[in-house]
Fold this protein.
Amino acid sequence: MKSKLKRCITAIAAFAALASLGVSSAAAEGAPYESYNYDRWGDAIPSQAGYLPDRTVSGIDLGVGAFDSPDDIFFDSNGLLYIADTGNNRIVVTDKDFGGAERIYDRFTMPDGSETVLKQPMGVYVSAEKGLIYIADTENSRILVSDMEGNVQQVMTKPQTDVYDQKRTFLPQRVVADKAGNVYTVLGNITTGAAMFSPEGEFMGFYGANRVEPTAKIVSDHFRGLFMSDEKKANRKRTVPSGITSFDMDGEFIFTCTSSTTQKTDTVKKLNAAGKNIFADKELYFGDYKPIYDATQNKMFSPSMVDIDISEDGCINCLDFTTGRVFQYDEECNLLFITGAVAKQTGGFDHAAAVESCGDKLYVLDSSKDTITVFRETSFGSIVHEAASLYNDGYYEEALGPWQEVLKRDGNYRRAYVGVASALLRKGDYKGAMKYAKLADAGDIYNKAFEGRRREFLKENFTAIAALLVIGIGGLIVVGKYRKKRGTAVKTEKKEAEQL
Amino acid sequence: MMELTQKQWVRHAVTHPVEGFEDMRWKKAGSLKIALIVIVLLFFGQIAYGRLYGFQFYISYDKTFNIVPYIVRSFVLFGAWVIGNWSVCTLLDGEGTLRNICVYSAYALIPYVVQLYLNVILSHFLIRDEYVFMQIIELIGVGWTAILLFSAIKSVHQYSFKKTVLAVVLTLAAMFIMLFLLVLFMSLIQQIFIFISTVYTELSYRAKV
């Protein structure tokens, strides 16, 4: 008892020391926020940082003059960073170490030989397969497809079909292209999804619209609509889903995000080639679990995902404008790290606009500070990434070592308990798997481990159980017979007594 | 005929859904002590159901433990049922006394209580694929208790079938009203308490000077 108490106290003291160490070390590294993660009940708890701010880079550092509200960045397959410098009407290309500008695209040669300039380009994409640059030339209402030398190959403008409402503007804000050369573009004030163009530049329709969330209001509006005249219906407020804000391409899948703060469903989607959302049936939640309440403005701040990026190892980085945080998820949408804040210092953002990843670094573009912030992976982050990618590829046992290392560094890291439990289950250590599954709050893993443990237990103790059963049943029969006998005896006695 | 001890009466009432409570009434049997034990067991059963369930089925939020919901789900609900039924059936020419309503209703709850404990124990032996057994047990327990409760009200007040249905519906309404008033009363008391404490704080600051 005493030793237990003592052990408890030492554990608490050690934990306190560790916690204070962790906080102070994070502060020493210069992040203007304390990193956190979520525990198994969805409460925020302090955690080790997966990324730490390294430096910020401005246009002046690159020797090309200050950026003016840049809106998008993109890494091509050669590690070159394309910056859509919106206010300066140009695309700046630099290497990933920011040694200086490799190239600036501000003039393009049209197929007929004339020159053309950009006007507020908001999105840029480079296709590795085709060697082409795709630019969302927003204020010119067109998408430019150019080769690396600045010769325009193709121009996509407002489609002249019935499918596209001609009263609406055509303001491309983000653009991606798939391997086949199909071009997808996010348009301002269009909520029916991304516009899709064939490699020949023909409009093919819309792709991946968001769903309307079935809130109580919409359900009641629907029923009220049943009793309304057509005229009245036409004058009602319409419920439309919010449009896509940004997207990124990963192999055959397109990931989209939506910055609407009122929308809870479809904030992040993984679309296949047919435009079907693979995340739709999973109960996933992106961003902070609890919206932040600001008492000075009497407002709730819900997550607003303005950009999404898929890193090379499949991690999903979502940039939340409201909190200035990058939420990193693994392929299975388990939260790995939360990085960043709204702050003035390095590592904080005023107006976070775009996120990209290259190797073990994260790049976040701030369109108000006009800088790019570079986050580098910590050693903790690299262990978690290694473990998560092994785990997601099905190498549970190989992931055991890294996960245990993660737990050594951060005992609150829930994902690691899931990893250890799965590895132990695969190994056949059911008892250990049960223990870790319990800590991870993973009922399904626990269920499997328990099934195995029960089978093991029955096998080991079969003779004892069988013997107990036989003895028990035998005993019951004997007792029953005895009671019956006694019962009849009592009855006859009673009868005799009555007769007397 | 029917010379049974109090313990045997419990068994008789539970295993004879139609006649059991009639016999009990005829023989003026039923013990308040046993009724109280059943309700206490219900209370602990609810706690076990909420906290000690097998981990493969249900994950409890064990950061904090709040006993109030469990008290409400056992003592308060049962009390509201008994008082509600008594007040309704006094107006509907019921013959049951408060004591009898309490005893009979508690006896009727036995299958439900047994089901709670059985399921908690089974949840540590079964896996998710075998959950259907626990569902069956739960279904039987709840159904049996419902039938017994109906039969108990019917015999304690000597009602016809139709009138019992009416009484049960009215009792549920009465329970609802009572609980509503209780919540209203509590929040009012809270407001008054806050008012008094504010006045006190204010005075204590002024009185110092």
In short: The CA atoms of residues 116 and 129 of chain B lie 20 Å apart.
